[in-house]
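Here is one chain, start to finish.
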Amino acid sequence: MTLILITLSIVALILLINTFKVHPFPAFLLVSVLAAILLGLPVSKIAPSLEKGIGDILSSLLILITFGAMFGKIIAISGAAQQIATTMMQLVGQKRIQWAMMIVGFIVGIPLFYGVGFVLMVPLIFSVVYKYKLPAVFIGLPMLAALSVTHGFLPPHPSPSALVIQFNANMGLTLLYGFAIAVPAIIVAGPVFAQFLKKIPSQPLETFVSEDLPEEKLPGKFNSFFTALLPVILLVLTTFLNWRIPVTSPLHQSMVFLGSPSIVLMIVFFYALFSLGILQKISMEELMINCSQAVKDVASIILIIAGSGALKQIFTDTGVSEDIATSLQTLPIPPLALGWFIAAIIRAAVGSATVAGLTTGSMILPLIASTGTDPNLMVLAVGAGSLAFSHVNDSGFWMFKEYFNLSVKNTVLTWSVMESLVAVVGLIGVLILNLFI
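Its structure:
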């Protein structure tokens, strides 16, 4: 019955947005209230649940999206994006640009959380798309597939790291096996799948569009690449120093502060104002006008993500994920496949990969010991399942849709299929490894 009610809620959301043309934010809130009532959440707890869901998701993404948009706008209007696109195309050529994007996404995705990586890499994707008039989804999906795989499969990301501890797995082995599975998953769901998406219509956010500047007015190559990659450099550096500096050291607390993605984006925004603004003789007034426009362009995205957070919280507070996991525990399926399947169903129902992974972990733990299943492989099986079936209740779905300016239908045909391919290839890889380990 729980699955039926969740399905009805999601169908209602799609009808409101697609058929009746309701903006996703009020549509999410209306469906969230209806879902809460149908799933038995006390009326007195509905409003607090909505507010908590919106607050939780915006607390982690609001600064990232707004500063990321302003940062990306500076990179665009200064000519740095043009310089980066030209240099990358000269280095790898148009035929291999997808693979270059995929490799960058994989490297960046290992230390960075998915939302941070998405916001930081989108300007790079669009710089190539606009400069060389290439299909946006075709170019962007390989990089985003790489970011998604690292988020679901590899420590130090939240869900796989927590599962390693919960299952008493070996962090090093899990990472090693994860790399072995991640590479084919990214290739299949990225460059290979994207070959079929060249004709998907997409007009990405105009925030990242800028007129081509003459070569003499472009910032230098080092300045362009260094400024664009400075968030990644700072996050990787502070993460490494956190591992090396004792927790009791005062310097450790400073690294924790400086390593926060929100603080890093604030730092690089002000650095970009200087390195790509003032040094390029762009007035502060012009820079601020462009930054304000960038924030206006992403305001709708922020509202939509807030709405998805409200629905996720309703599903969490009504115990949907636990109900589903408990009902699926007794299925006659091999343990690794069962872990994947439970995570996939919870992901489809709730929308959050992290919630799906952690909920499945608590339910599948007794099965690991009783069946002698390799805990390292179970981490990866659950991680792969937690990426499956991303759709309208997932904030990542809406970020991709709105940044790339796609219809709901085309977002399902591109983003949702990509995430499901990653999950299926991941499961196949786990089952193959299980034959030899």
